Fold:
Amino acid sequence: MKFSDETLLAYLEGSLDEAEVHAIEAAVAEDTGLEARLMALDPFAPVVQQVFDDVPAEVPEIDLPAPTPQQYKSGPLRLLAVAASVAVIAVSATFWVTRPKALGWAEQAAIYQSLYSAETIADLDNSPQNLDAQFAQAEAQLGRPLNREVLENLPGLDLKRTQVLSFKGKPLVQVVFADAQGNPFAFCVIRQGPNAPSKAVNLAVLSGLSTATWAKDGYGYMLLGGDRETDLSGELHALTAAFAG
Structure:
């Protein structure tokens, strides 16, 4: 069946009866040439094309509500409504594709540690009595010993404090040290659960601090401090030996 430009314009304007609308739509589904003619006559076709051009190539699937009968009525707003719907999908998809990845416990702990300065820890009370209470609380929360003797004898570091933090409901213990110049360092332990995978030592720079992380037998460990050039190998050797599991 052939349709004149006048008939196609009438379709776009919504002035055809239901039978004529169905006939045109059935023909468009089978005839790409007719579809091209219809798009050329529609003033909103460039808007639709631009929206599709802006949609990311790889996006997650999005469940949309079932369309209502009114959405299929012809008229000058027909393709504009489609374009608006696609624009919503494009914005949502772009958000899901480009949103930042959630920070893990090590990144969060590094951000917290980066706020420390020498003045932050200079006046901490690291008397044996205070450390006894702090270690007792931390070990009870973690469900494992913290090998205090090892921590008190790390080369070049003075034990200052132990405190219990939390990450997504899991206890995270921060053991704070000062180096010979009074600069803060920390050793962190988080209880991840019996099914957490073991991980080999990974060296990285997080929040401007040198870090070493590893995991074993349901616990995650991290040593961090100094700056991006700081060598952690001396302390790391003692810690990985003591906290291998």
Q: What stands out?
A: The first helix runs from residue 5 to 13.
